[in-house]
């Protein structure tokens, strides 16, 4: 089981539903705030492309990715 997202986590968008101006699939960003609700979570994300748009999980789907500081050195 994957641990829940937390502020500061880096994410990549897998899918987003029902938004008239969605974030592009594959976009990456940093979780800034989480608002747990009954059966879902609203997540504020600072997207790397400069946009700011909240996610609703579910139905939106993201995956956690390594932050640059966690990436192995080459």
UniProtKB/TrEMBL annotation:
Domain of life: Bacteria
Listed Pfam families: DUF4314
Residue stretches making up the DUF4314 domain: 6-63
InterPro entries referenced in this protein's UniProt entry, alphabetically: DUF4314
Full protein name: DUF4314 domain-containing protein
Source organism of the structure: Rubripirellula tenax
